[in-house]
Amino acid sequence: MRKEWFFDCFCGAQFAVYAEDGKIVEAMFERDHSTELTGNIYKGRVCNLVPGMQAAFVSCGLERNCYLPLGEGAARFTAYDGEGNAVRAPDLREGDEILVQIVKPPRGNKGAKVTCDLSFVGKTLIYLPQTDFLGISRKITDQAARERLLKEVDKLRGRGTGFIVRTAAEEAEKRHLKIESEYLKRVWATVERAFRTANVGDVVYREYDLPVKVMRDSLGGGVTRIYVGNGPLYDKIVQLARMRADLGERKIVRYDGPREMLRVYGISEQLNRLADRTVDLDNGGYLVIDKTEAMTVIDVNTGRFIGDRDLETTVFETNLVAAREIARQVRLRNIGGLVAVDFIDMTDEEHRRAVDDTLSQALALDRAKSRVAPMGDMCVTMFTRKRTNNDAADFFLQPCRHCAGLGTTPSDVFLTILIRGDIADCFADAYRSVIVECSRAYMKQMLSKRYLSEEMRGMWRENRVYFIPHDDWAYERYTVRGDNAAVLSLPDSAQLLY
Q1: pLDDT digit string (tens) for 96-105?
Q2: In CATH, which of 3.40.50.720, 3.40.50.460, 3.30.420.60, 3.40.50.2000 is domain 3-34+211-269?
Q3: 100 CB contacts (<8 Å, ≥6 apart)?
Q4: Cα distance between residue 315 and residue 353, in whole Å
Q5: What are 431-477's pLDDT values in tens digits?
């Protein structure tokens, strides 16, 4: 099986996609200067204490004050086996300036949740500079390995500090643990120094960007190739690969062809479908995925699949295929929270249990934790999936400006990604000029955010791109064409890109 990762950076966003035999399994997106805040450490000021809630509210320079529960201490790390001394609630007063780390980003009308028990995540260890706790991943089941790792890591921590041994440490050598522990301690030292000179609201530590997080947490053994479509990004990934004993630098390929890398390898078309409401199943059935305020609802339909036996068997086979695809889609789209699946009605109780088991087994392949409730009499299955990063829909779609947000349209960055690929294809086909016609509203957004400025300064600097705006076009409508005429016939409204 080919196991390939694709990394690229353009239009103000970074992409990391994992594919098995050419079929995408996992996709992550992050805009430059992303609004993803989890893991960031801020210098904050205590605004007010609420004894009845055992909490404080802290100003961190965000839109809303952050919520700080008091006295959690090592209880925050109960997902790991371990123990630590009881941690008292910090003795805070209004006006105190403190370091806080975001553990839950703001959502809706709620501010971010923060903690004073800071943590720094590495490949094999999590360093807790202010929490007396020694823990280990529950996925390490070999008792001898657990005892060895805990003993070795215990020697690396100082008084009042802690470490958590991650799953990736099971095969790690003692010297690798020591090297990483010293690195994480140096990171903490830089945060302490930054705190002394920072202003309230300043970020004194920013969680790693997307390529670093993927290389640290997701990139397992057995990877066949890593393709990178951006020069600086390639250099960064090569440096990261040199820090890993299980990943050879020779597996990393720098793509520098004239066409867009993700299109060349058949990845773009699959990514673009993540914005679709309907998902086709391999047997002719289909799913309909709708996102509501409270949950995500998935409807299963037989579609063109008519089976070759009785109705119950046809429905059962469709539901089995749907269960596997649903697990794939929630992972791909990074759907978190509560998910309700309306399977096609089945009368056989064994069939219902088999569909639930198939869904549970497929979800178990996902790094994000899920919990599946038994299917009810109406063949509706509910499950929860831990929310990690942003939902893919938040990247690809935006509220429609014409229906008060009741519907969605493609986001400006998604439209630019599509147009960018078409422009690259035109230049690869030896056209010297490209003409893009689009809505005036989209062109205004694209120009103001300078999505294609890097391309015009770099690989397209010898070419010309013209945009022609239309006031009466829908936001998502556009056309792209190449032209080699010595003199172009363009309307007065045409604008040369940058």
Answers
A1: 999 999 988 8
A2: 3.30.420.60
A3: 41, 42, 44, 58, 60, 66, 68, 114, 115, 116
A4: 14
A5: 999 999 999 999 999 999 899 999 999 899 999 999 999 999 999 99
